[in-house]
Amino acid sequence: MRFSTVFTIGATFLGAAAISMVAAGFAVSAIEDGSRHGVRAALDQRGLVWSEVDTDGLQVFLAGTAPSEAQRFEALSVAGTVVDAARVIDQMLVEEAGEIAPPRFAIEILRNESGISLIGLVPATLDHHQLMADVAEATGGAPVADLLDAADHPAPETWEDALRYAVRSLGELPRTKISVSAERVEITAMAESLAEQRRLETALARRVPEDVRLALDISAPRPVITPFTLRFVVDARGARFDACSADTTEARDRILRAAGQAGLQGKAECTVGMGVPSPRWARAAELAIDAVDDLGGGSVTFSDADISLWAPQGTEQSRFDDVVGRLEADLPDVFALKAILPEPPETNAPVAPEFIATLSPEGQVLLRGRVGSTQLRETVTSFAKARFASDAVHVTARVAENLPRDWSMRVLLGLEALSYLSNGAVTVTPDSLEVLGNTGRKSAGTELSQLLSDKLGEAGRFSLDVSYKEALDPVAQLPTPEECEARIAEVQSNRKIGFEPGSARIDSQGAAIMDEIAEILKECGELKMEIGGHTDSQGREEMNRQLSLERARAVLNELRLRRVLTSTIEAKGYGESEPIADNDTEEGREINRRIEFKVIRPAPVVEEQTALESLEDTGEEGQETDAPNQDPTPDAQN
User: pLDDT tens digits, residue range 49-89?
Assistant: First the structure.
């Protein structure tokens, strides 16, 4: 065989082998790329983006650090759905498990008419029997469902304080949900009235533990207003509401906006309540207020769907007819309008009879003017003595004839109206009933408008000039914690609660001071306060601390004996640790031996402001009382 032929055949085989090698390389690369891209896409679709994919021939390598063993296994399973599971090589790691978080102790306390439920996780060290006993004591023995689980882990430092506070608060809230954790107590409840809402918010905020945050959501139900009343007046004193009611906050805003356009200045109260006779109440009120503005004065009174419009005396008949006609056409169908244009006064008319009842700031009641009969005078006297103190009523009214038929009713109604005032006067005439005075009840004006419009009827004319005075409001006049603390400090400014030498027995002078302090605390109501006992530095430190504690407890016991509520007052002994004067002199030691009363204030919480926080600022630091007290003996004088 010739050499050229052999060479050609060999070259052909070599070429074929090379082409096969190249083709095989392309095939392997295609398989690797397809496997890698397919597995990558499947892992990404399942959210396993932490994994890494690589290939070597037919083998698929999975690498990366899995957040958990479960996710590592999931990645292997996903890859096995794309390629043969035998081709998947696991090179993944798993994150080390962090420290197990401690359990979060929390209790949900639910209370309603059927009883109390306790749900949550508590420390294993909690005494369940004692907790049930405390709940029963706070709620008067209400049935309790114990659905608590326990965990064997140390309780946070403030857990007991928070739980104790929550259980104690439970006694004042017949329908409530209280969420308790070590650092926070959340109370959701409903009060029977706005006044009760304010009282509860103040009382609960006063005694919250120092290191526990409090979140309050106490709501008051919308009052049922009967009759649903609104009275708007424009006279010589300007524009004002004697009573204002609305069924929604939107309706209230519309009514107040209409009153502002009619001349009302400043802020006005408008109660949102239930009992509205028509969903178009706001529209009717807007139209009636506009009518008073168009007349240039007068008054409009709503009693449910009945409307009485009084024009100012002297209004032109044509103007009166235009305004009334327009109002009648625009009012919603359910409302009935009675419009009155007073007759001009007659120059020779006889003097109208009057009955006048006055109430002095001291509580004295004087009844004068005219009554229809001796029997009516006795009835009026008995009625007045029932409404006011019997020995405070003085009657000089005389019996007269030819009085209006409804005179008796108007006189008794006037006395009823007077009972809403702290001081003032009521004047009854045949054509009108005028109430003038001061009150400590914010709702007195509205209540009087409802009473008079209901009793006098649509055509009944009355006027109100009743002013709310905060100084007459017993709730508003409750001393603040700071004022109470300052008053107690004032009592001890020149005197001190003294003790017999080396003992916790209060001496005679100290007993007199305790009487004054007890009276102050009775006026202050329930107040979270600390009684701190202090000594000088003579004697052993531990003995001084024990003596100061015993003296603080003795003061607390003296308050109990004087019928002061002490459930929110605690006694502490500081011994010689907080001197306020030099212990190297007798005068300084005398000053350091003392009893201090301090209000315990909750720590300020930086969070969104609540309705309670806008009424009461609890973040100010109080001042310590450093009044000296006396104790005569040098050695055991602490």
Answer: 888 888 877 788 888 888 888 888 888 888 888 888 888 88
The Cα–Cα gap between 155 and 160 comes to: 8
244 and 201 in a common domain: no
Taking the model in full, what pTM does it have?
A: 0.49
pLDDT of residue 610: 42
Residue pair 399/371 in contact (Cβ under 8 Å)? The answer is yes
Q: Are residues 486 and 601 both part of a single domain?
A: yes
Same domain, 254 and 157: no
**Same domain flag for 392 and 318:** no
DSSP string covering 151-185: ESSPPPTTHHHHHHHHHHHHTT-SSEEEEEESSEE
What CATH number does the domain containing 332 carry?
3.40.1520
- Tokens linked to 410: 């108007």
DSSP state of 499: B
Helical residues (DSSP H) of 493-623, grouped into ranges:
508-524, 541-561, 586-592, 611-615
Nearest to 36 by CA among 89, 73, 74, 96: 89
CATH number (domain holding residue 146): 3.40.1520.20
Residues facing residue 230 across a β-bridge: 302
Interval 169-181: pLDDT, tens: 988 888 899 999 9
Least confident of 212-221, 249-258, 345-354, 413-422: 345-354
The token duo for 7 is 């060479």
Q: Provide the strand spans (E) within 81-135.
A: 88-90, 93-94, 106-112, 115-123
Q: Which of 472, 489, 507 is the last residue of a domain?
A: 472
Q: What is the pLDDT of residue 550?
A: 92
Question: Each residue of 171-199: b (16+ CB within 10 Å) or e?
Answer: ebbeebbbbbbbeebbbebbbeeeeebbb
487 and 466 fall within a common domain? no
205-223 tens-digit pLDDT: 888 887 888 888 888 778 8
Residue 621 located in a structural domain: no
Flag whether pLDDT at 624 surpasses 50.
no
The answer on 495 and 396 residing in a single domain is no
Distance from C-alpha of 24 to C-alpha of 461, rounded to nearest angstrom: 111
Domain range for 84 is: 3-94
CA distances from 338 to 118, 303, 306, 327 (A): 59, 12, 8, 11
Give the residue from 485, 504, 505 showing the smallest Cα distance to 549.
Answer: 504
Nearest residue to 163 (alpha-carbon basis) of 180, 175, 151: 180
Q: Does residue 418 contact residue 424 with C-beta atoms inside 8 Å?
A: yes
Question: Same domain for 250 and 308?
Answer: yes
Maximum separation of any 2 CA atoms in the chain, in Å:
165
Residues 284 and 382 in one domain: no
Handedness of CA 202, 203, 204, 207 (dihedral sign): positive
Mean pLDDT of the region 626-636: 42
The DSSP bridge partners found for residue 229 are 303
From CA 36, how far away is CA 61, in angstroms rounded? 9
The answer to the question of residue 637 being in a domain is no
Kindly state the average pLDDT of the residues 96-120. 81
What confidence tier does 91 reach under pLDDT thresholds 50, 70, 90?
confident
> 472 near 437, Cβ under 8 Å?
no
Three-class SS state of 262:
coil
| CB neighbour burial string for 391-425, b if at least 16 within 10 angstroms, e if fewer | eebebebeeeeebeeebbebbbbbbbbbebbbbbb
* pLDDT of the residue at 9: 65
Quickly state the pLDDT bin for 288 (edges 50, 70, 90). very high
